[in-house]
Amino acid sequence: MKETKNVLSKSLPLKLLISVIVLALLAFYFKIFFTTGRYFRDTFIKKETSSSETQYVGKNKYGNIKITVKELSPYPKTVTVVYELPNNIKKEHTVTFKKDGNNDSSLLAFENIKDETGNIVFAGGYYDKDAGLLLDEKQYPVFEENLTVVVEGQNPFVADHKISPSTTLGFASSTADIHRGQYQLLIAALIILAITLIDIKFPLFFFTFRHIGTVDNPQPSELYIILQKISWFLGPAISIILMIVAII
After folding, report:
1. Which of 74, 126, 193, 194 is the most buried (most CB within 10 A)?
2. Is the Cβ–Cβ distance between 59 and 41 less than 8 Å?
3. pTM, entire model
């Protein structure tokens, strides 16, 4: 009896340590997963908000990315979006929204978009906030061409790098903000993990459920037991991989 108590007293600190480590890793993981931001050129950039402006900051293999959004005037609402991209590229777009535009739940009306020199990049129209589409004055979709032609594998941030109007409108309206993590992959990982834990806790649950009403007192074969034990390792491994992929 004393030996059992000694074993339990020795294993308890280890279990507590493992529990603390697991909880810390989960807290760190979900902090990353629920980070607010958006994707720009296939790179997730984190949103950082202050009283005067909003910044989206990130980094890819070509360098640092910083996009600053600042309101210049509340009426008519005028917002400037400054792009600081790799290769010392700096672009600036200013969006002037319409005073009495049709700014309903899905359509955002704007007067025009100008570049840093004052030239009009796109005349008035609408921005579909739900679909992220650019519309003209008659609310017909504007099909934006690929503004920067890049050979696969080469640096896309070249001197004449162009920013599409819809990209600027997404930043100016903050409607493209998302969480970094992919919910579908996380849900799939949690389902696999839950099934595995149930199978470990109740080894005959799924086997019995599968044969209920068809076989009296079913018993698993040796092959089933071997494959089941293998799945106890594969299930958590697959879940971890899915959770990692969900935040990449």
Report:
1. 126
2. no
3. 0.74
Q: Which residue has the tokens 């739900």?
A: 130
The phi and psi torsions of 235 (rounded to 5 degrees) equal -55, -55
How high is the pLDDT of residue 145? 61
| Separation of first and last alpha carbons in the chain | 50
Look at residue 24 and tell me whether its pLDDT is greater than 50: yes
Cα(111)–Cα(105) distance, integer angstroms: 18
Q: Which helix (H) or strand (E) holds 96?
A: strand 89-97
What is the pLDDT averaged over residues 63-91? 91
204 contact partners, CB below 8 Å, separation of at least 6: 220
Domain ranges in the chain? 14-34+181-246, 37-179
Angle CA(142)–CA(44)–CA(242) in degrees, nearest 5? Answer: 115
Give the distance from CA 9 to its chain's centroid: 43
User: Cβ distance 79 to 95 under 8 Å?
Assistant: yes
Residues facing 83 on adjacent strands: 67, 91
How do beta strands 89-97 and 133-135 pair?
Answer: unpaired
Query: 3-class SS at 152?
Result: coil
* Alpha-carbon span 166 to 113, nearest angstrom: 10
Residues paired with 49 in a beta bridge? 54
What is the side-by-side strand order in the sheet with 43-49? 133-135, 120-128, 107-114, 89-97, 77-85, 63-74, 54-60, 43-49, 36-40, 178-179
Q: What digits encode the pLDDT tens for the residues 117-146?
A: 889 988 878 888 877 788 888 788 887 765
